[in-house]
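ugh ok so i messed up the first submission bc i forgot one of the chains. this is the corrected input, ALL of the components this time, i swear. 400 residues overall. if the numbers dont match what u have on ur side tell me asap before i send this to the collaborators (the ones from the other lab, u know who)
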Amino acid sequence: MTIFPAKAPESDAQRLPPRERLLSVARDLFYRHGIRAVGVEAIAEAAGTNKMTLYRHFASKDELVAEYLRCLAAEKNSIWTKLESEHPGDPAGQLRAWLHEAARNVADPTSRGCALANAAVELPEKDHPARCVIEQCKQSSREKLVALCRKAEIKQPDLVADQLFMLLEGAFMCRQSLGNEGPACSFVRAGEALIEAHSK
Amino acid sequence: MTIFPAKAPESDAQRLPPRERLLSVARDLFYRHGIRAVGVEAIAEAAGTNKMTLYRHFASKDELVAEYLRCLAAEKNSIWTKLESEHPGDPAGQLRAWLHEAARNVADPTSRGCALANAAVELPEKDHPARCVIEQCKQSSREKLVALCRKAEIKQPDLVADQLFMLLEGAFMCRQSLGNEGPACSFVRAGEALIEAHSK
DNA sequence: CTTCTCTGGTACCGATCGGTAACATAAATG
DNA sequence: CATTTATGTTACCGATCGGTACCAGAGAAG
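and heres the new structure output, hopefully the right one now
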């Protein structure tokens, strides 16, 4: 009996090496149901393998969680180079693009907030191997956003960056309690107004 | 072996009826360690009683969780009457007081964010008895904040209220990943600037 | 005293948790 | 070919999970 049915029939991803399949499945299940709610057996089964193979690639569930978050952090960090390549030499445009990219993530119907932030809620133990991943990623995001605000010649760039940061985290949280019609629907307008008021 | 040591020697609360002791302990443990991380046995033990008594007062762990959140929601809702009584007929002052009250909750060294929001992260199942408690509380908070902004004659009260709402939720989240020196430390300034820019 | 309600204590249930031992197989490598 | 490496399979471990049956005592109420 599969508690967490895999939506995809895994036809394409099936022949990836088991480590990739495991990480892919872990990513889906951890995000949708929560980390503590998903057991290693369910992950292995959904990945078309078994617990032994899982433990040959990951020292423990906690390490699997850490690796899962490491992948997400790497993807999240890749947005900055993407912004630079899509709006070269236009930091103001990059900042606007960042805002709309964030808004799309918030409004995504399958969205359940930021996986890193959710993990921070679920894993309060400060010695958990996932915590440093979370903290480093968030720290990096904050710094990158401050740098972007500065380059975009935003007035009070630190304050505005922190405000945008909090708005995004808050929008993610509001999504999970009040849905897309809650305060989260004001995210773009709020961000645009904030940037506008501190531009030039 | 007690996994979650109770900090207080329970000298005073010890002789409350077991239901109150259980709820008090559940509140502490659920908030500090997370809901899924705490078992009913640990709660009963820390409350100086046992599982049987717990299940005589609560139909299930899920119902205990729901009741725990109901208590928190009631306390959270009581702030609005408190604001009214401390700043009677002064909605602008009430709004500022709300902001600083929220900031104190964020900056509290024992804070681990909003318990309701954290529960929403941990309990994504939409039929969980706790979810309606969370949604109703958040919905009510949003409406109260909108009404307060309106009475305080804030321009674009809906947008500002949602923005303050997201700022607070975001500040709570930032606390859990980047601590008090993270973006959360800009919460008050951001809120004040927002209110200032939309006043009169 | 007797009855009734509440509580404590203990032992237990089936299920699941994270994690491992041992062995068979298949594929890549030499 | 032979050997090695990675994977699949099964069964199992001790611990804990949420939840319950059963009985002993304690206190208040009649």
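quick check: Residues 5-14 of chain A have pLDDT under 50 and may be disordered. that seems consistent at least. Residues 17-18, 49-50, 52-53, 56 of chain A lie near DNA strand D (CB under 10 Å from a C1').
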